[in-house]
Amino acid sequence: MVYASYAQFHPDELQIVGVADPMAYRREAVARLYDLPPERCFATAEEATDRPKFADVAINGTMDHQHVTTSLPLLRAGYDILLEKPFAISETEMWELVRTARDLDRRVMICHVLRYAPFYVAIRRRVMDGVIGDLLTVETAEYVSYHHMAVGFVRGKWARRQHGYASMLMAKCCHDLDLITWMKSGTSPRSVASFGSNYQFRPERAPRGAGTRCLVDCEIEATCLYSARKQYLDHPDRWAFYVWDSLEHLDSPTMEDKKASLMGDSPYGRCVWKCEMDVVDHQSVMIDFEDGTTASHTMVGGASRPGRSIHLVGTEGEIEGFMEEGRFVVRHPDPRPGHEVAETCVDLDLLEGSQGATGGHGGGDLRLVSDFLHVVRGEAPSISTTSLDDSVAGHLIGFSADRAMQERRVIDLSL
How many CB atoms lie within 10 A of CB 105? Predict the structure, then answer.
């Protein structure tokens, strides 16, 4: 829906002409918004592709484990696709989609939206221009806030692999792994190691007096950081799309409706230490590239402040910044007497035409759609444009990192 909203701002570039969703009230909402006739509303991708091709492209925003199974019929029906990440949940699935797209000569652009955030675009331009010489290391980190961790990966859809299918690394950080391979574009990863665990959200770490449901049987709810009351009733709009999905059929659910859902069978009313999650709450990834350079990514769940950091060190300087701050520092060695380092701060809000970091993912969401439309119209791609082949390297790193962590060994990607 976020990507489709581009049509509301630029109807001369994009028109929504159909929808497929198994939930009738969602189909009806889209039909009302974009004035779609009943014959253009479908329950499944297969149902939509049984009809003669009636659009130029498809936007696929299904859940992780549905990406390949819904994209294959779209590709075979002749559609180019803007496809959510991770675009597969296993290497086998990934290669099946890649082969099909190649054989049919279809365009598939993966939604690596951070490539389009002004923050990362500005950094990538400087790397391409040789501002810091040849890259030696790329260090990235994602700090997942305590409330995001709880709603998505402890209580929510990605808390168990049998439900979310993708690992936390792939669901949350394939953006970051893609950024690493983008900064190292043209150089393939050679080997991967990784370590991580669920350190915090386990039954044995539950505070004394913790119940099973925050608003039902918990003695410490009033003082608990992860209280469902504090997380969701006191912040009813923060994660509304996830927390109140069981109330989506109601036009205007009341606070009493929301409280009742948390006291009932909503997964978001559970104690975070007793959710039986089987994903990690922190993980570090180390990458060796074929040219001998290295990279690392660290994901930490439960941070006080959410955000992403990046630190590039090259043979002639370095770049370091925090995306949410909208600025980064470029440093160069300064051997003059009385000096050591020369620094320049790049503030994106001050750059003409940058428009800061408005919108989702640091301003990348709708810029991604715009670029996709340029590509399918046959126009010049942007610095951020990603082909399906470009996305393979970052996904391979993610799949290999999870294997390396589980098997406690280094994974050789050349094999």
Answer: 8
Q: Which residue's entry shows tokens 């350190």?
A: 199
**Are residues 71 and 134 located together in one domain of the fold?**
no
Are 225 and 283 contained in the same domain? Answer: no
Instruction: Clarify whether residues 192 and 221 are in a common domain.
Output: no
CB atoms near residue 415 (< 10 Å): 5
Q: Cα separation of 369 and 251, whole Å? A: 29
Total tally of structural domains belonging to the chain = 3
128's tokens: 């391409």
Mean pLDDT of the chain: 94
Side-chain half-sphere CA neighbours of 113 within 13 A: 21
d(CA 32, CA 96): 36
| C-alpha to C-alpha distances, 113 to 237, 316, 335, 364, 389, nearest whole angstrom | 23, 29, 39, 5, 16
- CA 236/CA 230 separation, integer angstroms: 9
pTM of the model: 0.93
Q: How far is CA 312 from the centre of its chain?
A: 21
Q: What tens digit of pLDDT does each residue of 55-103 get?
A: 999 999 999 999 999 999 999 999 999 999 999 999 999 999 999 999 9
Give the domain CATH number at 52: 3.40.50.720
398 and 335 in a single domain? The answer is: yes
Q: Where residue 357 falls among pLDDT bands split at 50, 70, 90?
A: very low
pLDDT at position 5 is 95
Amino acid at 406: Q
Give the pLDDT score at 361: 56
